[in-house]
Specification:
By secondary structure, the protein is α+β, with helices and mostly antiparallel strands. It has a single domain, classed as Jelly Rolls. Helices cover 29% and strands 19% of the residues. It contains 7 helices and 14 strands. It has an 8-stranded mixed β-sheet with strand order 1-2-10-7-12-5-4-3. The protein has a 4-stranded antiparallel β-sheet with strand order 6-11-8-9, with no helix packed on it. A two-stranded antiparallel ribbon has the order 13-14. β8 and β9 form a beta hairpin. The longest helix has 26 residues. The protein is globular. The structure holds 2-oxoglutaric acid and fe (ii) ion.
């Protein structure tokens, strides 16, 4: 399998440039849903083009984030996130997470944001536009993520009330009681840095929530695990978002959709290049009970927050 097998799907009929999705042709929506879900069943990833998130907003979010990341660590310490689920907004420095706990810490810095987070955790004094940009990006991508979830629900061909139930589990996105966040990541140039054994930019993992929408820059390096266990590149394609299945959607669908592992290695040829990405992790409400939609009970019903706490405990155990 090669990266050309991660399909590029045209989302225009349900994208943000269509103000009224209820007027979309239902046959076209079903066709779109079938192609998205085929990709999500096969490899758990696809690219969406014509998603409608303005390029200017993406650029602004990357640039204001970069300004922050390039400040000295002593200044960023003030905005540190404490790595517990109750602390929603803030910065984590290099090697503070190991998404594959068997490896040393990941070589990236991140800044997490939710609209209701502890706002003192936002570096307004250092980068005045940061908060406004985060907020705008959150709201814009929240709209897109909910549209994507609607289409995925169509593709699952669920009875109407079951599909409605899945969407209704996301009523509190952007408010307390829902963990959905945006995360901006900065992978500094590796240069001549002495690496620890097995250290990479981002360890193998799958995302914890319902689904993720990722916007890469053009640096490359993201790799996705196929069903045969080989990693293939998810090469950046300008103007697209990468849609990924999260662990919750995998549990809900009793493994029909796969939360695929992904990672970022140390680049061989571009050691002096930095890399940036921005992502929304769409999550169900904290108290939503996640039970298999097919009634199979393949995974026992679990409140989302319980699942998240378990994953976070593992993530930070070694740090
Ligand atoms: O930086 C990337 O492209 C991937 C980020 C990612 O997978 C994550 O933060 O979970
Ligand atoms: Fe990820």
């Amino acid at each position: 399998m090669s990266s050309s097998e991660i399909p590029v799907i045209d989302f225009a009929i349900y994208g943000l440039n269509n103000a009224n999705t209820s007027s979309a042709n239902q046959d076209e929506v079903k066709c779109l849903a079938a192609s998205i879900n085929a990709a999500l069943e096969n490899i758990g990833f696809c690219y969406l083009k014509n998603h409608g998130v303005p390029e200017t907003l993406l650029k602004e979010y990357r640039e204001t984030s970069r300004e922050f990341f390039l400040l000295p660590d002593e200044m960023k310490e003030k905005y540190k996130r404490f790595r517990v689920p109750e602390e929603y907004t803030g910065w984590l420095g290099l090697e503070k997470e190991a998404l594959n706990p068997k490896r040393p810490g990941d070589l990236r810095e991140v800044f997490d944001y939710t609209p209701y987070g502890n706002l003192d955790g936002c570096p307004e004094d250092l980068c005045p536009d940061f908060l406004r940009t985060c907020d705008q990006f959150f709201k814009t991508v929240q709209d897109l993520a909910m549209r994507v979830l609607e289409v995925v629900a169509v593709g699952l061909q669920l009875p109407e009330e079951v599909a409605r139930g899945v969407l209704d589990c996301h009523k509190l996105v952007g408010q307390k009681g829902n963990y959905t966040e945006i995360r901006t990541s900065y992978y500094p140039p590796i240069g001549d840095r002495a690496l620890k054994p097995d250290q990479i930019r981002l360890g193998e993992h799958s995302d914890f929530g319902s689904l993720s929408l990722l916007f890469q820059d053009d640096a490359g390096g993201l790799e996705v695990c196929t069903r045969t266990g080989d990693y293939i590149p998810a090469t950046p394609i300008p103007g697209t978002a990468v849609l990924k299945v999260g662990q919750i959607l995998q549990r809900w669908t009793a493994d029909r959709l796969v939360a695929t592992k992904h990672r970022i290695l140390i680049p061989d040829d571009r050691r002096f290049h930095e890399r940036q990405s921005v992502v929304m992790f769409l999550c169900p409400d904290d108290d939503a009970s996640i039970q298999c939609l097919d009634g199979s009970n393949k995974y026992p019903p679990t409140p989302f927050l319980e699942h998240l706490f378990k994953m976070m405990k593992e993530l930070y155990a070694a740090k």
